[in-house]
Design goal:
Length: about 140
């Protein structure tokens, strides 16, 4: 089971290696969180990535400098800063999603149809089982 999971993860990660700009795992995680929770504040982001707020602030500095994320004053509190993806951030995530899809599809083409359907059903069940832990949200 471990080898099979590693093969799937390796295929998934390989698509990330070709991302432009190249992002760290934490940067990508921050973009995905922002995609799923537009307007999230720095404290919420820090909680979700498991890092201290100053670390997340520096992370957002880099993402903002790359043109992937913008900070703005929250409408509910002038002291609160919200985070939103830029058009470039959305495009980068969409391109990454497409690369991941194609990478997995290339592998699945070599899997017999019945096994492919069973695998996809199993992955759907796995995804549903993780929703309470991850909060669900749209796939990207």
């Amino acid at each position: 089971m471990s080898e099979q999971a590693e093969a799937l993860v390796a295929t998934w990660i390989e698509a990330e290696r070709t991302a432009v700009p190249r992002l760290s795992g934490l940067q990508l995680q921050a973009l995905l969180i922002t995609y799923r929770s537009p307007g999230i504040n720095l404290t919420g982001m820090a909680e979700q990535v498991g890092a201290a707020p100053p670390t997340v602030s520096r992370l957002c500095d880099r993402l903002e400098a790359a043109g992937l994320l913008v900070r703005h004053r929250a409408t509910t509190s002038r002291r609160e800063i919200g985070l939103t993806l830029t058009a470039h951030g959305y495009e980068m995530l969409a391109a990454l999603t497409e690369r991941r899809f194609l990478a997995v599809r290339r592998v699945l083409q070599h899997v017999p149809a019945a096994q492919r359907e069973a695998l996809l059903a199993g992955l759907r069940a796995f995804s549903e089982a993780t929703e309470p832990a991850t909060g669900g949200g749209p796939d990207l």
